[in-house]
Design a protein that fits this description.
The chain is an alpha+beta fold. About 20% of the residues lie in helices and about 40% in strands.
Length: about 140
């Protein structure tokens, strides 16, 4: 398998949140498990979107649907490590964009992982993909 390459634009990171690695996030090898990192990325995404006032559930308009995920692991994290999740948008398209993530351990400046999730706007009631709202594109694609 060819190695995954993720080139994340530095200027796109615009939000950060800190999340501690829980005991239940650690696997048998005594480090952060890959499935737990994906769950923490989801939490970071939810905090980012909430901060921006974007409802990913679609209760009051269009929601979002994660279409793909790419993760590149760089170092181990362990129970009780405080991790910094930096997020932002890039690669805008007609239906959505990508959310990028940089995960680090601030205590020693270690880069733990970088990741990218592609998402589309989605009408959960109708079960179909939607064109990205104009106000979303104007507010975020221009920056």
């Amino acid at each position: 398998m060819a190695r995954l390459e993720l080139n994340l634009p530095e200027h796109a990171f615009c939000f950060s949140t800190q999340i501690e690695v829980r005991v239940t996030d650690v696997n048998a090898a005594d480090h952060l498990g890959n499935e737990a990192l994906v769950a923490l990325l989801s939490e970071a995404r939810a905090r980012f979107l909430q901060h921006l006032g974007i409802d990913e559930t679609g209760r009051d308009g269009p929601g979002i649907l994660v279409a793909d995920l790419a993760v590149k692991y760089r170092a181990e994290a362990h129970r009780h490590d405080a991790l910094l999740f930096e997020t932002g948008f890039c690669d805008f398209n007609k239906y959505g964009a990508d959310i990028i993530y940089r995960v680090s351990r601030p205590a020693d400046q270690t880069l733990i992982a970088i990741a990218k999730t592609g998402f589309v706007f989605f009408d959960y009631q109708a079960g179909k993909m939607l064109t990205a709202p104009e106000d979303f594109r104007q507010q975020f694609a221009a920056g």
